[in-house]
Amino acid sequence: MIYGLLTLTKRLAASRFFYPVSTVLITLLGAVLRFGNLANPQLLVFDETYYVKDAYTLGLFGHEKQWPENANPDFEAGNVLGFLQDGAYVVHPPFGKWVIWFGIQLFGADNSFGWRFSVALLGTLAIPLIIACARILIGNSVFAALAGLFLAIEGQSIVLARTSILDGILAFFVLLAFYFLLLDRRSQSKKLNRTAIAGRDFTLAFRPWLLAMAFTLGLASAIKWSGLYFLAIFGLYSFIADWISRQRLGLRVIPAIWQALLNAISLLVIGFITYLASWTGWITSSDGWGRQANPNWLVALWDYHTNAYSFHTGLSAEHPYSANALQWLLNIRPTAFYFDSFTDERCGVLETCSIAITPLPHPLIWYSAVLAMIWLAIRFIKRADLAAGAIFLAFFAGWAPWLAYLSRTTFQFYSVVFTPFLILALSFALRSFWRRGFVLLRVKEREWAIGLFVVVALVLAAFFASLWMGLPVPYWFWRIQMWLPSWI
User: Taking Cα atoms as reference points, which of 436, 421, 384 lies closest to residue 134?
Assistant: First the structure.
């Protein structure tokens, strides 16, 4: 099987059609895993209880409305007009809920498929996007395709693309911004090379891809404030890359500082305007929560944000599935989104069954990717490898800030935002292994090792698929999926 897979891959890779065909096929696989059985359970799962109902009233009024206690059963049954007239206090910006509202608008608020459609669509589109990123970074279509395949079958990414909460949406927009950053880096490298050849320097350059990145990260920040970390780190990477590239080409490095100042101003202005625009519905409302606290909408909005900031930094309520940032990398405590047992038609051909939804990261991909990221960080530090640096700093922006909140209530699934960068690190490391390997491993042996890795990853994805897609299985099967007691 592995031999046939390797032979077929080699033959296809030599064709100019490999990149588009492999991208389409891998995206279709990811779409099946994200859209299959999407409407089930026909219940508000985990934090969908907040975001779906908030998205619905946001679409109706431009701001969120309060709901009575125990409103979920009526909403799930299709009685979606049970909201109250008072504005609701929410602690996340509006844009992610506008994304959710798009699916509700298409399919109706009484349709659980519609609740989750937008998130599943973005989760699927992230697959060709990561392939495009990997192709720029790695320069090899086969290993770029592997990055797409790993994301397509990665469990946490699948569940967060099937659940209507904000983190999967945030992950897509951060990855899109990263793609724009890579396009800017490629464009700037070409300009610097031409400058070095011509023997004359330039000071400031118009960087349209950086402006696109700023706009995208403004949207990301309007989903969750953690998008701001990526705005800062991506801007910092742009400066570092300019500085190193100029040094290597023998150009003056001072222009990199002036360019960085211009970039910083552009990023902040565009990001801020984009973020502010996401609040237009609340700003123009008369009864949004806190809107009437001050006739000056900017002051009222600032007061709202300081209140929400206090909530975020002071959140320390106990939760059975809380996990801090150090535990995320070890995959110790994934969050159980849903679990129930049945003896009815929901079991299909089974007499009794259990249905569980847990955003459990794919164990082989996850642990391998964490090790690859450590190797990549060392490579970046030792060699100033800009491709390695882009991946590592993107991961750093998604993970490191949470180290300041180890006592705050956080969850494993927050890590979905940097999962694509772990996967890029894994693909980068596999390509390096294929090219150079270890002692006593010939090229053919290295290819067999990579082929075996891919096959085992696919087998494990099939094994855990029911846990990620909410499919009915015997209770004993669910128990053997729980490899660690802390996963239950």
Answer: 421
